[in-house]
Amino acid sequence: MRTDDKKNDQASPIAHDGGNDPQQGLTGTTRRSLLQSAVLFAMFSGGGIGLTACGGGGGGGHGGGFGGGMGGGRPPDGSASVFKHGIASGDPLSDRVMLWTRVTASAPGTINVEWEVASDEGFGIIVARGTTSTGPERDYTVKVDAFGLQPASTYFYRFAMGSDRSPVGRTKTLPVGGVSQAKLAVVSCSNFPSGYFNVYAEIAKRGDIDLVLHLGDYIYEFGRVGYASQLAIAIDRVSDPDHELLTLADYRLRHAQYRTDNDLRALHARLPMIVVWDDHDVADNAWLGGAENHDEGTEGSFAARRAAAVQAFHEWLPTRLPDPANPLRIYRSFDFGTLASMHMLDTRLVGRDKQVTLSQYLAGEASAPTRQLLGQPQVDWLSGRMAASPCTWQVLGQQVLMMRMHIPVSIATNFSLEALTEYLAALALPESARSESQRALIAQQKVPYNLDAWDGYPAARDAVLAMARNQGKNLISLAGDTHNAWAGNLTDPSGQRVGVEFGTSSVSSPGFERALPLIASDLLADAFKRTVDDLRYAETSKRGYAVLTLTTGEARCEYIEISTVFSRDYSVRLAATLRVLPGASNLQVLVA
Questions:
Q1: Pairing of β 475-479 and β 497-503
Q2: In the sheet where 96-102 sits, what is the strand order?
Q3: CA distances, 29 to each of 3, 14, 23, 201 (Å)
Q4: Measuring CA to CA, how many Å separate 410 from each of 82, 391, 407, 420?
Q5: How far apart are CA 426 and CA 431, in angstroms?
């Protein structure tokens, strides 16, 4: 069960005026502002969402477009600038980093853009500069691989076109040799109409993060009344275009809308990002040959849609292509000296077989030894990269949960408060005190709660875990996708611990609090921990992010929660701190 399943979670349209706002009266109040006020009042007074006035945001940006937040669909601050979509950096190596911006052209044609990198914010010491061109064939986006830089160094960069200058960005290169620490912010699932990007705002404020990992669903493909869009009008974040994304123009327009968000632009300007795609960057529940949210009979070729989504993704994000001739290949590695190798995987588009249904799983179809999630070329690449790495930690940056998340079939087929409490009541009793029906409940088969994850591809998972075990590696999997926070142990079929997994919550997409509103979040989280053998931590109702701090002595994961995504006023809390120690006899999630 996925908390973003389109078939089971169709959004209900909010009544609204589909045309232009009427003229303001003497009070200066429009129908739209009345609707916004009414809905937000209901959310914050009757919905139990507290306002603590210590979070993100306010109106326009700070310091040339940094920080702050604004209500979504309007043009960003400084929209007269040709660089109104901001700047970004990503895919850092020890001697180079990708730089990105976009030019808002006054007329079609080829445009020359200057760029420069400095070791100081005042640009007194320029270390790299150049001129590049862009045009309509790449949607006027600019990507530069700035090389000749020093390891583990902070740099500042900017672009210029004529007298127009972009905001100043800050970036950092990767280290070499012995490294004492690396600290990464891990995010996933940023759905524009679902709420404000307060998570991005918080990360951008921090001064202790080296880079950001985005594990997919950077954008969502749904239309105006699509998934989790009920409050989009009230918070001024209605999706653009208003229909489901199908063409290159559609995907480009949606990426452009995301760049109207000040918090997203502030995050990109402050920190380098390493990103991979997931299904919603193309279409819901995508696999190698199609997607649940794609009908070739009415929507045309899936391959054409995928190519359009991938092109726009690479245009609008600071990715470095491992193989320029094959933009579908996004899997790549990054080394933090001898401390950690991070392997960014594609579990979605290049090798995934079609998802099985629960009935097919029960019939054994998911266990076929040839069933693929990564595809053999990616498996071979990962094996070679891990084998060659001398690093203390091997980190997988990937999309979907890898740990075994099996729950009783009675709950999987009827995820209700009644089914859950019935099973937990039986579990709480000693075996001698259980009735025959309760014994049957405890003895029943367990099945994956989400067949779109690695659980639907057990042979593929076992192959990766065997690879790490046989090579003697300290394995950490990072996952997104579910909109909930999880942590647990990675075990092979014999139950031997091979590594750990830290799954991050979402930036704005709702979790189980929306999918299962009748089940209290504390009860649900506890039920998952009591029924899933390898699970050690669960938080199923809060938006947030994870911070992974790597040292030679431990890997530590902090789960940060944001109180709300429906207001610019929010509070932040450290929800949990977990850790894992290196060594084959360790490799389990511990409370820090």
A1: parallel
A2: 141-147, 96-102, 87-90, 273-275, 211-214, 182-187, 543-550, 555-562, 572-580, 590-591
A3: 37, 20, 9, 30
A4: 57, 43, 8, 9
A5: 9
* Among candidate residues 438, 437, 436, the one with its CA nearest the CA of residue 428: 438
Q: How far apart are CA 322 and CA 368, in angstroms?
A: 31
Q: Residue 195: which residues within 8 A CB-CB, separation 6 or more? A: 231, 235, 237, 508, 543, 564, 565, 566
**CA–CA–CA angle 192, 197, 200 (5° rounding):** 135
Q: Inform me whether the pLDDT recorded for 305 exceeds 50.
A: yes
Confidence of residue 81 (pLDDT cuts 50, 70, 90): confident
Indicate the length of the chain as a whole number: 592
Q: Is 25 a residue whose pLDDT tops 70? A: no
Number of Cβ within a 10 Å radius of residue 145:
13
Is the distance from CB of 550 to CB of 336 less than 8 angstroms?
Answer: yes
What is the arithmetic mean of pLDDT over 436-449? 96
Question: 399 to each of 7, 227, 275, how far by Cα in Å?
Answer: 21, 19, 10
Q: Mind listing the pLDDT tens digit for each residue in 98-114?
A: 999 999 988 899 999 99
Please report the pLDDT score of residue 14 as a whole number: 24
| Confidence tier at 80 by pLDDT (50, 70, 90) | low
Q: Where are the alpha helices (H) located in 213-289, listed in sequence order?
A: 248-258, 262-270
Is pLDDT at 342 greater than 70 in this prediction?
yes
Which tokens belong to 241?
């275009």
What is the rounded average pLDDT for all residues in the chain?
88
* Mode of pairing for the β-strands spanning 211-214 and 273-275: parallel
Amino acid type, 413: T
Distance CA 278, CA 551 (A): 29
Q: How far apart are CA 268 and CA 259, in angstroms?
A: 10
pLDDT at 402 over 50: yes
Place of tokens 């808002």: 104
Q: Does the pLDDT value for residue 367 go beyond 60?
A: yes
Question: Which pLDDT score is estimated for 79?
Answer: 58
Helix (H, G, I), strand (E, B) or coil at 148: coil
pLDDT score at 50: 30
CB burial of 221-253 (b: ≥16 within 10 Å; e: otherwise) equals: bbbbbbbbbbbbbbbbbbbbbeebbbebebbbb
3-state secondary structure string across 541-564: CCEEEEEEEECCCCEEEEEEEECC
- Residue 375 phi, psi dihedral angles, 5° rounding: 90, 145
Residue type, 172: K
Per DSSP, what are the bridge partners of residue 187?
A: 214
Q: What is the pTM of this model?
A: 0.88
Residue 186, H or E segment: strand 182-187
Question: In percent, how much of the chain has pLDDT > 70?
Answer: 86
For 95-110, b where at least 16 C-beta lie within 10 A, e where not — what string? ebbbbbbbbbeeeeee
